[in-house]
What we know:
homodimer, alpha/beta, Rossmann fold, eight-stranded mixed sheet, two-stranded antiparallel ribbon, globular, STEAP_metalloreductase (chains A, B), oxidoreductase activity (chains A, B)
Amino acid sequence: xxxxxxxxxxxxxxxxxxxxxxxxxxxxxxxxxxxxxxxxxxxxxxxxxxxxxxxxxxxxxxxxxxxxxxxxxxxxxxxxxxxxxxxxxxxxxxxxxxxxxxxxxxxxxxxxxxxxxxxxxxxxxxxxxxxxxxxxxxxxxxxxxxxxxxxxxxxxxxxxxxxxxxxxxxxxxxxxxxxxxxxxxxxxxxxxxxxxxxxxxxxxxxxxxxxxxxxxxxxxxxxxxxxxxxxx
Amino acid sequence: xxxxxxxxxxxxxxxxxxxxxxxxxxxxxxxxxxxxxxxxxxxxxxxxxxxxxxxxxxxxxxxxxxxxxxxxxxxxxxxxxxxxxxxxxxxxxxxxxxxxxxxxxxxxxxxxxxxxxxxxxxxxxxxxxxxxxxxxxxxxxxxxxxxxxxxxxxxxxxxxxxxxxxxxxxxxxxxxxxxxxxxxxxxxxxxxxxxxxxxxxxxxxxxxxxxxxxxxxxxxxxxxxxxxxxxx
Lengths: 232, 232
């Protein structure tokens, strides 16, 4: 499968490397590839410059949002939530149409200081905004409730834990569940919450996730729904 | 210990019965005890009238919010979130001052239809509103992230699962943790998230809780934080 991963941050890199390791073809999309490759400083989170990462992942290419989206059979959104709709506009509705878009982003709003709040929230979500803006895209919200290392290596966290999926297209959710299983998730760990409207409820896990990160002092934790029957 | 439980719904009844079974003295507070006792129809959730419940729990008394709060050494808020501040105003700041107030309520807003949204949310919480309105009260937010049967009988859900506490007063949180242990919670299941500001993050679990209730078809589930060390 050809995957376009939108976003050059640590989530995009982690997903891209995992997809490539599973034998998929991967192109990462960004606004301005030349500018991204020209950076020599760590990013705002202390991650090494993208060019360093790319040198160690030669099977992955970097292209514009539009070229990546046009080429990919499926698309993964790992851009910062605040910039997601702009990035998808740059990718282009025609290049995205009828494809599965796996949305991992969270609409964290740092404009009011720390801890970040969510915008939108409560009566709307980023997942729903994407689905409304690109009605022909099959948006599946998933993996947005955990650290990216756990997304691609769930065994980092001992015991049972959960990954949620939300989306309007049942076949798209099935396909994404298959991808999650290939990442190492037991199928019984996947809880299908329903339509894309339920993305509200998973995005609203971010405040307690951020709080737990601080309280526990590490990010190797995940939500588990105790009492959910296997395969719910 | 003398506990004033504010609210006559199923959460209040369940907490009151548990406290009484543990040998505590319990008074339930309500706006208008005569009106509450006069009702002969099930409430909006299909629960039997309060008078029926009280007939089977003769060690519990029903009084006004103010009389209950004045009498109690600690107070438990189980009123509907939308009416909590009004109920606490009726209880009276002087009757609440310097007491521990265990806040189990969630600010569910049904005014926009189903599913309910939260008001306040994101940059504020009911727990914080209570603490600001009653600065001398020691507000501890806890137990608001699960069905009330599980609050008082955590073993209903198999395996490990979590109860969060939020509050500004460390000693009050210790006392409430002791109460949770007496309810059957292992001390290692209690995660202290920090100040009352962190009540935002637990109240924001309600949307996914409500969604899971629908998806799973039962309420005997709870959040567990996999990867959190015991006693975090």
